[in-house]
């Protein structure tokens, strides 16, 4: 579902920069043209890296490091060991926000499980 970007308490915007605040899910919002995931990701990349006519948000030295590390990771072959779409991932147990252990097996027994990873800082 497409959502408009909003401001949260930290005063930063959630949504896609440069795309009128639309999220990457490609369902039109009140007559707005549908944006494909590829187009949305390309716009994010241009905003972060620059488009050749103006610089992006990531400093050039940091961008060089990011591209080098990405190339090293791909060359390591880690992708061959990743679960494929639809394939089950490994079972795990982690503490929740109340410091209580929660197992993925127990959650899967109740229905579908979505695992989301968050960045360490905003």
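^ structure tokens above, recovered residues below v
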């Amino acid at each position: 579902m497409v959502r408009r970007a909003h401001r949260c308490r930290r005063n930063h915007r959630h949504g896609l920069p440069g795309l009128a605040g639309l999220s990457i899910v490609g369902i039109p919002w009140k007559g707005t043209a549908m944006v494909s995931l590829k187009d949305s990701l390309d716009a994010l990349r241009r905003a972060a890296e620059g488009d050749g006519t103006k610089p992006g948000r990531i400093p050039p030295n940091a961008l060089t490091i990011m591209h080098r590390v990405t190339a090293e990771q791909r060359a390591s072959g880690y992708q061959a060991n990743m679960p494929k779409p639809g394939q089950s991932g490994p079972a795990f147990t982690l503490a929740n926000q109340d410091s209580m252990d929660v197992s993925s097996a127990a959650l899967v027994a109740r229905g579908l499980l979505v695992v989301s990873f968050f960045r360490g800082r905003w």
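DSSP finds three helices and two strands in the chain.
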